[in-house]
Amino acid sequence: DIAPGDDFFQYSNGTWLANAVIPADRSNYGMFTVLAIEAEEQVKSIILDLAAVDAAHGSVEQKVGDLYGSWMDTDTVESLGLTPIQANLDEINAVETHADLNALFATINYQSPFGVGIIPDPADTTRYTVFVGQGGLGLPDRDMYLEMENESFERYREAYVAFIAQMFELAGIEGGAEKAEAIMALETRIAEVHWTQARSRNISEIYNPMPLDQLDALAPQFDFTSGMDQLGLTSVPTYLVAQPSAIEETAAIFADTSVDIWKDYMTFHFIQSNAGSMPA
User: Fold this and answer.
1) Which of 23, 187, 269, 279 is the most exposed place for a label (fewest CB within 10 A)?
2) pLDDT of residue 231
3) Separation CA 46–CA 86 (nearest Å)
4) CB-based contacts of 219: which residues, under 8 Å, 6+ apart?
5) Is the pLDDT of residue 50 over 90?
C-alpha cells in the first residue's frame, strides 16, 4: 500500500503499471492508445461501408470510397513504377548550379539544409511570423551523428547509411553505396554546426527577429531574398531566425559542397519521403 501523500503517481497508477501488458505489436500502451485503436477501427468500418456502396457520382460517399479504392490498388502502384515521381527526379537531375539548388529549396517539395515555417510569434502570439531554423538532417538529432561513445548511435549511423544506399538501389539508381557515404558525410558536417536541443529551447537565444536584408547578409549563399520572393513571403517585416550561427555556417557548407552531392542528397530525401506511396 502506498499513501497518496508519499507518491501520488504510484498510488493512482501502481496497480496498472504492475499488471498491464503491452501488446507485442505496440511500443507503448495506455487508455489513449486504446481510444486511438477504437477510433481507427470505427473509421475503417465507415470507409469500407462507403467503398462497398454504389454511391451517386460526385457525392462524398463516392469520393471517400474511390479514394480508399485507389489507395488499396497496389497493382496499379506496382505497374506505374517510378513514373509518379519521375518529373521531380528529372527536376533535381536538371540542376547545374548552387543557384538552381536554392530555387528548389524554396519549394515545398524538396529537403533543404534549413527549415522555413509559419508559427505564432513568441513575443506576440496574436500574430504569426516566419520562422527560419537549422535543418537538413535525416537522423532525428545532431548527437546521433556526433556522439562516438554511444554504441546505439553507432548502430543507428551504420543502419542509416545502409538505408540510404538501399533507397537508391530500389529506385534503380547506380552508385548507391558511394552516394550514401557522401550524404552521411555532408549531414555530419551540418550536424557539427547545429545547436543542441537544450540551447534550441532557450527562448532568449532563439528569438532573433531580423529583416530580410539582414537574413540575406547572414547567409548570402542561400539567397534568401529570392527564396522568400518565390515563396511569397517578402512582405513580412521580420523573420524569426532561431539558430543564426547554424544558418550562417550551414550556408558556408552549402557553398563548398559540390552540386552533385547536393543533388544526390535531395534525390535520396525525396525518394525516402515518398517511399510509402511507391512500389515495392
Assistant:
1) 23
2) 95
3) 34
4) 247, 248, 250, 251
5) no
Residue 232's region, left for phi above 0, alpha for psi from -120 to 50, else beta, is left
pLDDT-based confidence at residue 71 (cuts at 50, 70, 90)? confident
Alpha carbon distance 33, 13 (integer Å): 16
pTM: predicted TM-score of the whole model, two decimal places: 0.84
Per-residue pLDDT reduced to its tens digit, 8-42: 999 999 999 999 999 999 999 999 999 999 999 99
Please state, in angstroms and rounded to a whole number, the distance separating the CA atoms of residues 248 and 220.
Answer: 9
Q: How far apart are CA 213 and CA 11, in angstroms?
A: 58
* Three-state secondary structure call for residue 113: coil
* CB-based contacts of 109, cutoff 8 Å, min separation 6: 88, 270
Q: In sequence order, what are the beta bridge partners of 209?
A: 240
Measure the CA–CA gap between 23 and 64, rounded to whole angstroms: 31
CB atoms near residue 185 (< 10 Å): 12
